[in-house]
Amino acid sequence: MNSGGDTSDLGPLPISDEKAELQRESIKALNALLKGHDAIIFRDERVEDYGVDGSFELKLNRRMTNFRGQVQMKAAGRLTPLVDGSFSHSVRTANLNYLLNGTAPIYILYDLQKDEFWFTWAQDESRRLNEETPNWRNQEWIALNFTEPFTLASLPGIHARIMKEGRLHRQIHDSLAKATGSEAVVLSIDSESLSITDPIHARDVLLASGVAIVASGFPVEVLDLLRLLDAEIRETARIQMTAGYAEFTRGDHYSALGHIRRALARKSELSARDRSFLVTLRDAAEFHIGLIDAEAYQQRLAVRSQTLEGLEALEARQDALRHRYLGEKDGDSRAAIVEKLREVTAEILGHPDSHRGLKLDARLLLLFLEGMQANIQTDESLFYSEIREFLYPSDTKSATENLQNARCNQLGWEQQADEAQREAYELRHPVLIVQALIITLYVRIGRLFEKRMEAINSHQSYKVPEPAKTSIENIFNEAYRLSHSSGLVEGRLTLDKLKIRFLEVQGDIGGAKAAAEKLYPEADAMGFKAIAEEASEVLEDRTLLMRYEQDIAQSDLQHRDQLQATQSDEQLSRMAMHLLKIIGSPPAHPKKLLGYMRSLRFIAQERCGWCHHLQLLENLTQTKDPAIAFSVSPSRKVICDKFNHISSRESVDVVAIVEDFKHDFCHSCSARDPRGY
């Protein structure tokens, strides 16, 4: 057997060239450098390599994010620095153009002799070349400038940039997709319906729905339809905008920018909404190919948001009210926000520039908050009805009527939601359909959530009824299908979050944790902090349901006095406001109710700290009559339930009456027995 260097007995063999050897050595050295580094993983992707050798994938908290920066490796046996200490390396112009269509593209240059790496960002090089050699795209070769050493110390900065640009790409995609939600759709958006060969039909479809069709995941089909159009129609602003969006979605940002600029040259043909969409699209394309950086893109976006007028200004106000509602905890404030939202929505619906798709988009946003509000009001009314029945068994008419009204509101919301869903399907716009389905899921799962909490409170098991479970699962399936086909990242992650809630409500904590484990890194990496936080709560056993169950279990171990004695002023105020709504004002006075709650806490503290035999005797005529209840503070006496000592007088001042009782009967008592905290 020939084990030496002689291969004559093997016949002719291919010879490995120096370039291939250098590439292999550079990737080996890169893997060696990154060994043990947990935040960035290098993925070797040299199969069918057209200009990308691999990618850096980011990890967050030991979880893979699918956030990637595309990597092009270059190498030399020995690098000679320029006068300023940087290094120059030539590549084909086509290589840079290709790399610019990817996400966070980076060049890494390896010096074999010194075993050192240098790097530069493709977008930074594109901007430099635009400034120094504006016609560089006409050259066959260009020289890249490497100024930064690629070391372990540089990895945090690289990690941060890939993360930042990945989030920005997500933001751009979702904002553009959402912007198409107001566009009318003239046919069912699927591959079969887009098999059009008639130029007139193609023109009508593209003018009415081209942008929406692209957003639904069919950019190639749109570009095929564009080829059917005659030259005059193809040059119109609307068609050029559609072509630009299709090329952008495909990843050909240079072609996209050409179409976008031709559309901008005829922007007077476009509506204000289309012009806004077009400018956003232009900025996104310029960012992708390195004409502007991330900061410039965000700055342009901020400037545009401050100069909105007309219908766009109303939409911005509507969205701001939605965010205020979701961040508000006070019930009365939430109700007031919903009222303001109704007013703004009415303005949008009545605006002369508002067409059917845009009106539906506005209605869906209002429906979302009205559905949440209907759930809250029904739960409150049920709670108030139960307490009212306990306090005043003979006077529950008003509470029962409120509960019936709340349930009617819930049924009315269901009808409106069904109508909105039907309209979304009639419009045949996937983005709006997904939005409608998500709103339905939010509200229906919210109702099940409340049922589960009631079961926990009453120490009962809870099972989601099979019809409700099947219905919700069908909605999930449809919403996921449309989200995936339309590339709606935020929609898909929101569905993942709701799926986790649904699993938890059913008691499937293992399933909820497995889903949260998968969701958290992607949501966190993409900047969806609220979604990531909800997934984190599941993983760390601190969801609202989990904490409520823990609180109930803890309260079962404590005496009622111990719980009442440690109530905060905020808790007392909240309980007093609940009582005010149950009893009504008049007769009840807010200050009298708060004083009453404080007196109950005080006597509980006395039983825990002084003696558990202390009890209050209350003048029931001042609290049990619903016509005058809590219009004045009730007077009390103190009694010892062990020796039957009783106060010689009654008073509305609980502190004074307890101190008098202790002075008269307790100081010499050997049986004093505090309950403790």
UniProtKB/TrEMBL annotation:
It holds the Pfam family DUF4365. Residues 24-155 form the DUF4365 domain. This is DUF4365 domain-containing protein. InterPro entries: DUF4365. It comes from the Bacteria.
